[in-house]
Design a protein that fits this description.
With about 300 residues, the protein is mostly helical. The chain folds into two domains: about 190 residues, Cation efflux protein transmembrane domain (Alpha-lytic protease prodomain-like, Up-down Bundle), CATH 1.20.1510; about 80 residues, Alpha-Beta Plaits (2-Layer Sandwich), CATH 3.30.70. Strand 1 and strand 2 form a beta hairpin.
Length: about 300
């Protein structure tokens, strides 16, 4: 059984290779030139590589077949990977925000030329990495988290180029931490989006765009159905919606045929391929008639 859409690892390996190569290059150039800005950007790139590594490990585990205690397989490992990537974006944003705030209060001298060169390296590497990650299945929240890491670093590098150019043009160096705060806000938004989506899956919330009330109404509208209760709509992992329900059918209705019609409605109208439906005939009237002779204690 396949649990959702699993990303193609090939593109992740390409993105990982790009990040590792760029980090090594920046470390070497940083040591040769004595540029702390290049070394700092290399550290950022390493965090991107770690995010991709988390996504890769999640995908490898998610592809293991179901068995033993894990009857659904390990599809939700991807969601745990997304949680780690989303949380790390928020942590990085917090660190960058605090640093930028301190620099606004006391802006240090900025070497505009070094900052521009660092930004150019960052933009090229992160755009290539983001492109490779975009080619992988971004329905995977773990991949989406790694993609957001690369995208935010690319935006950060663009901001660094702009800041460096403005400093070279004679603008106050306070522009550097101001742009950093703008990037921080974007990082918070991206990290929160990934974290919120993965938390919804872990809490078994109904997928966005799949309203349980609408699903229930569609099932009740099926011919022969009297009532639907104990309806649950959730995602096992991203892109793997599931539905369970207890369905009461009219007396004399073919329960097996009714279950088939219900499954077709879920598949055709809501793209739900995994459903567990318990369909039973309504015997409540018969039970009431059987109980009537017992009313008042008489038999």
């Amino acid at each position: 059984m396949s649990a959702g859409s699993v990303a193609e690892p090939r593109w992740l390996w390409i993105a990982l290779g790009l990040n590792v190569g760029m980090a090594l290059l920046e470390v070497v150039l940083g040591i040769i030139s004595g540029s702390t800005a290049l070394l700092a950007d290399a550290a950022h790139v390493i965090t991107d590589a770690l995010a991709i590594g988390i996504a890769l490990a999640s995908i490898v585990l998610a592809r293991r077949p179901a068995g033993g205690r894990y009857t659904y397989g390990l599809g939700r490992v991807e969601i745990l990977g997304a949680q780690l990537n989303g949380a790390s974006l928020l942590v990085l944003a917090g660190m960058l925000g605090v640093g930028a705030g301190l620099r606004i209060a006391d802006p240090p001298a900025v070497e505009g030329g070094v900052v521009v060169i660092t930004g150019i390296f960052g933009v090229l590497g992160n755009i290539l990495a983001a492109w490779a990650l975009a080619r992988a299945s971004r329905e995977s929240l773990a991949v989406e988290g790694a993609y957001q890491h690369a995208l935010m670093d690319a935006i950060s590098s663009v901001a660094a180029i702009v800041a460096g150019a403005l400093v070279l043009a004679g603008v106050s160096s306070v522009v550097d931490p101001i742009l950093a705060l703008i990037v921080t806000a974007l990082m918070v938004r991206s990290g929160w989006t990934v974290l919120r989506s993965s938390t919804d899956v872990l809490l078994e919330a109904a997928p966005r765009g799949l309203d349980p009330e609408t699903v229930g109404a569609a099932l009740v509208a099926v011919e022969g159905v009297v009532e639907v209760h104990d309806l649950h709509v959730w995602e096992l992992t991203q892109g793997f919606p599931a539905v369970t329900a207890h369905v009461i059918a009219r007396p004399g209705t073919d329960c097996e045929a009714t279950r088939f019609r219900l499954e077709r409605v879920l598949a055709d109208q809501f793209s739900v391929a995994h459903s567990t439906l318990q369909v039973e005939s309504d015997h409540r009237e018969e039970l009431v008639q059987l109980e009537r002779p017992w009313s008042g204690g008489a038999r």
